[in-house]
Design a protein that fits this description.
Blueprint: H1 10-26, H2 30-37, H3 42-50, H4 54-69, H5 72-86, H6 94-110, H7 114-120
Length: about 120
């Protein structure tokens, strides 16, 4: 990273920032960190505390996954990961194959609701 950042004493500077961030995170609980990052709302946190059975847990997680898959940024990140994964997998036409299967899977999941998805996987 320091080869592309124009920061004097880059490694030392970044290390000091990492140490400060670690110290701040060590003093926070997961809910607080989640809230600061904007990754969860209080509604989701309340829902999580009420979950107790496998069906409810699956439905909540499946709903979150389906919502995430509708986000273009998430789609883009997954496709970048596929590209990187294909650099180490011995599969011919790896990117085309995995990317095509991914697109089909996402299209299928977007047409399901969370409860249906959970019942299809046996939960």
């Amino acid at each position: 990273m320091c080869t592309i950042l124009p920061i004097s004493d880059c490694k030392e500077t970044l290390h000091s920032y990492v140490v400060m961030i670690e110290a701040l995170l060590a003093e926070m609980d997961g809910k607080t960190v989640c809230g600061y990052l904007g990754l969860c709302s209080s509604r989701k946190l309340q829902t999580l505390s009420k979950v107790g059975d496998t069906c409810s847990e699956c439905t909540m997680i499946a709903g979150e996954i389906i919502t995430l898959l509708e986000n273009e940024q998430v789609d883009s990140l997954i496709k970048e990961a596929i590209t990187e994964l294909c650099t180490v997998l011995p599969i011919s036409d790896c990117e085309t194959t995995l990317d095509g299967n991914f697109d089909e899977l996402v299209a299928l999941l977007k047409n399901l609701d969370a409860k249906t998805l959970c019942s299809l996987i046996g939960l």
